[in-house]
Amino acid sequence: MFFYLIFCFLAVMCFAVIFNVPRSEFLTCGLIGTAGWTVSFFFRESEMMFFGIFLAACCITALSRIFARVRHSPLTMYLVPGVLPLVPGGAAYNTMYAILIGEQASAALLAINTLQTAASICLGILTVFAFPASWFDSFMNLLKLSKKT
């Protein structure tokens, strides 16, 4: 598990480089993506895999909104690299491969799985975006209070 966490952290940081995130935010992006992937990892082999991906997307979006508020940065700077470990790229590849070699039944099952994963990610992001911005301002207030003392 430790190696998975390290590789996930490095992968998110590499995507942060690709998306031109400032160097000062690489560590934050890596931590956000790794936190979300860790949440999804615990549900990976269970029947609640899509719920785990939903929770991971909620976690990534909430952390992205918090850090965007705290650091006065764009939200997408944290959200896009952070959500990439959840994206079903391998499943989409396998779906297309099954279509190309003519295995229509397995392609249909793989496509459904891929779409369910993508929908879980979208619903997780949309759920956290439904919360008012004032909820995330409370973290700003907590930080201001801690700096005064």
Task: Tell me about this structure.
With 149 residues, the chain is an all-alpha fold. The chain has one domain. The chain is 79% helix and 0% strand. It is built from 7 helices and no strands. α2 runs antiparallel to α3 and α5 packs antiparallel against α6. The radius of gyration is 17 Å and the shape is elongated. The termini are far apart. The mean pLDDT is 91.
Short description:
With 149 residues, this protein is mainly alpha-helical.
The main pleated sheet reads as: none
**Mean of the pLDDT scores?**
91
Structural class: mainly alpha
Please report the number of helical segments. 7
Radius of gyration: 17 Å
Query: In percent, how much strand structure appears in the residues?
Result: under 5%
Helix content: over 70%
Shape: elongated
The low-confidence parts are none
Distance between the termini: 39 Å
How would you spell out the order of helices and strands? HHHHHHH
Strand segment count: 0
Number of domains: 1
